[in-house]
Each structure stands twice: as structure tokens, then as C-alpha cells.
Amino acid sequence: MTNFEIENIQKQVDRIQLEFDDLKKLHVSTTTRYSEALNVLRDSTAHASETAQRAANAAENSVACSQKCVEAAQKAALVPLVEAAQAASEAATYAAQSALESAASAASAAATAALSVAHHAEDASTVASSVAAEASRKASAFAAQAVVLSNQAREYLLKASQKLGNRPGISVG
């Protein structure tokens, strides 16, 4: 083997070594970024799950509010206070709207959690996603219940208004 051939082989080895070092650096950088991305996804999934749970709680609170409004509308309908029945009916309607918004928020959070799971299957994310989906289901059920209660409050208002012969100035529609 000649000196020229040895030098040529050494140059090739040096070039391969440089390429190997570059690949090693790229691998470390990629691994670091991947790890950071997984942490962000895990945290996002946990936050989405918590958001869905809070939205379900808000929807449940709206149902409780609607129930109280129905009771108020029912009691107000028994006495000549149609205005009170109307106010209670309107409050029940707003509570139902709040419950619907909470259900939509829970569904959005559940979708976010599901997307995170789709991007990386990690046990914590899978659990958080299923918790968010359950919270979304609960929020939807509470929203439906709040709408039913709102309709009941409206019925009490209509009955009270009819008892009084739809006095002028009383809006029921």
C-alpha cells in the first residue's frame, strides 16, 4: 500500500468520523426535543382532563340552579306573582344555557385529550383522556337535565300567567 492510498483511506475515515459525530449530535438533539414534546403533551392531556371535569361540575351546578329556579317558579305560580315566576323561568333558562356551554367546553377538552393520546400513547394520557370523555358525557347529561328543568319552570310561568288571564305587561313568549 502506498502513502497516497493510506492518506486517501485516512481522509475517508476522518470524513466518516465527522459524519458520525454529526449524526450523534443530531440524535441527542432529536431525543431531547422528543422528550420535551412528550412532556408538553402529557401536561396538555392532564389539563384538558381537569378542564373537562370542571366543566362537568359547572354543568352539575347549573342543574342545581335550574332545580331551585323550578321550585321558585312553582311557588311563585301559586300566588299572584307572575313576575317572580317569570324571573325564575328566565333564570332557569340561563342556567340551562350555562350547562350547555359547560357541556361544549367538556367535549372540547375531551377532544384535546384524545388528540394528545393519538400523538403519543402513554398510560397517563390514556387515563386522562378517558376521564375527560366521562366528564364530557356527564356534562352533556347535566345540560340535558337543565334544559328539562328550564322547560318545567317555563310551564309554571305559563300556568301562573293563564291563572291571571295573561295580564297586560306580562311577557310569556
Characterization of the model:
Helices cover 90% and strands 0% of the residues. It has 173 residues and is mainly α. It has one domain. The mean pLDDT is 77.
Give helix % range. over 70%
Structural domain count: 1
**Can you summarize the main beta sheet?**
none
Task: Give the strand content.
Answer: under 5%
List the helices and strands and how they pair.
Elements: H1 3-78, H2 82-119, H3 123-163
Gist?
The protein is mainly alpha-helical and 173 residues long.
Observed structural traits:
173 residues, mainly alpha
